[in-house]
Amino acid sequence: MKRSLLVEASGGPLAVVVGGANTHDAKLLRQTLEAVVVERPQPTEEEPQHLSLDKGYDNPTGRQAAADHQYTPHIRRIGEEKLDESRQRKHPARRWVVERTLAWLSKCRAILVRYDKKAQNYLALLKFACALLWYRRYNKLCISR
After folding, report:
1. Angle at which helices 119-144 and 95-105 pack, to 10 degrees?
2. I need a labelling partner for 66 at 20 to 30 A (CA). Which of 40, 41, 48, 105 fits?
3. Domain range for 88
4. What b-and-e string marks burial along 37-60, b requiring 16 or more CB atoms within 10 Å of the CB?
């Protein structure tokens, strides 16, 4: 079972979709972008909305899905070198934000090891865990004030 997750800049989950393990990531991107649970502000010329993706989305399907949803895609080209001429990174990778959120979700044993037969039940459990993450973030914010 493959999980496709969309997160905001600090790692809060915005959308989650499950698919078959043999499904390519770019094919799940459109479903993931459509599954966003909060109303998204309209992107403008002054404030475009950026979408950072890894090399797996460097194909026409991934780029078209991002463009159809009015995102500015930032996708490293397949075969592109990570370092510039002075051996420094041009733009740091942001993939760790998604990986950290997946690690948070994997702390739930029923998500780490899929016990559910039906994909609907597994998706519901993932969404519940995402809601729990948001509740904990909100609760921590309220306590710190």
Report:
1. 100
2. 105
3. 2-144
4. eeeeeeeeeeeeeebbbeeebbee
**pLDDT exceeds cutoff 80 at 6:** yes
Could you tell me which of 112, 143, 113, 108 has the C-alpha nearest to residue 128? 108
**pLDDT at residue 112 in the model:** 86
Q: What is the CATH number of the domain that holds 49?
A: 3.30.420
User: What are the angstrom distances between the C-alpha of 19 and each of 48, 70, 87?
Assistant: 29, 24, 38
- 82 CB burial (10 A radius; 0-12, 13-18, 19+): exposed
Number of H helices, E strands in the chain: 5, 4
pLDDT of res. 130: 93
Q: Are 49 and 67 in contact (CB under 8 A)?
A: no
Q: How many CB atoms lie within 10 A of CB 145?
A: 4
d(Cα 130, Cα 126) in Å, to the nearest integer? 6
pLDDT tens-place string over residues 23-53: 888 889 999 999 998 888 888 888 888 888 8
